[in-house]
């Protein structure tokens, strides 16, 4: 190849000989550099680096999938927490209503207990009165029956 080039240069004399040699030297140095870098690119250290890079990418993708799953679970748990919070609010409102009703019933129960005590006191007063005067026995009986009916009505369960 070099001989052919020299013959071409000598016969044509378009390129000076020193320039041809310089071009040949540059071509050979480029070829040697290319071979050197090709060998280095395929060296064990470079291949290890490529393996490590691939492994890192796989680990990164695995971690990204785990992160996505964790975020999905977090969103589900946040939704559950919101539902629980709403349930708590609803239950508190119901409890307040129930407590108000209980307080109202306790007030009514106090009133009914007082009426019962009054009725029992009236029964006791009428019983004593009937014991002292036998002629008022019929009216005492009717008063007694009235008080008994009142007590039964007061003791009747509330709807």
Question: Can you offer a commentary on this structure?
Answer:
With 159 residues, this protein is mainly α. It has a domain at 2-91. The protein is 91% helix and 0% strand. It has four helices and no strands. It starts with a helix and ends with a helix. The mean pLDDT is 83.
Question: Which terms summarize this structure?
Answer:
single chain, 4 helices
For the sheet with most strands, the description reads:
none
Mean pLDDT: 83
SSE pattern: HHHH
Figure out the total of helices.
4
Give the uncertain stretches in residue-range form: none
Helix content: over 70%
- N-to-C span: 119 Å
Q: In percent, how much strand structure appears in the residues?
A: under 5%
Radius of gyration: 56 Å
The number of strands is: 0
Shape: rod-shaped
**Helix/strand class:** mainly alpha
GO molecular function: metalloendopeptidase inhibitor activity
InterPro entries: BST2
Transmembrane segments: 15-39, 137-158
Protein name: Bone marrow stromal antigen 2
Topology:
Elements: H1 2-12, H2 17-41, H3 44-132, H4 137-155
Helix pairs in contact: 3-4
Question: Could you give a short description of this structure?
Answer:
The protein has 159 residues and is mostly helical. The protein is 91% helix and 0% strand.
